What does this fold into?
Amino acid sequence: MQFSDFRDRPLLFIDLEMTGLDPTIHEIVEVGALVVDGKTFEVKKEYEAKVKPSHIQTADKKALEINGYAREKWENAKPLKQALEELSELAPGAVPAGWNIGVDKMFLDFAFITAGIKPSYDYHTIDVHTLAWKHIFPDTSIAVTEVKLSRVCKHFGIKRGEKHRAMADIKATYELFLKLVAPPAS
It folds into this structure.
């Protein structure tokens, strides 16, 4: 069996903001994505979209408070299907990467299935949360829940934009990835 190196593909750093944690009930309301060259780790494209929720009544009020959702801020938001189509065209074959990527990928996979769109990204993922946890806390007795993006960014001196905004969070995650994976400049 031949394995392909993730560096032979583009990386799709992606962060979502949702109306809760259950993809069967809650919705994606914001997408932030960076397409990164797998060899150079250089950002090639950026994508950002607010997504119009179709059933805001099922939202978790705490989630809306955290991600800053307000109807007036989402007036010009895109329909989910349009955002998914644009996202799928962004980086065919890319390996999704992100902070706790499993949650975002679970929402994305459910959304693509529901919309009847075949996603173009690879099924492998890179979880920067796990990389950070193993790097900063090699003692596995420390709970994973203690490794928060804000805490790890502070540890590495990475400035964050507004918390729980898709583009700001994915840019911080990408910067963190560079600190954890990219070799230091010579």
Remarks:
- The mean pLDDT is 89.
- Residues 166-181 form the longest helix (16 residues).
- DSSP finds six helices and five strands in the chain.
- Strands lie at 11-18, 28-36, 43-50, 95-98, 126-127.
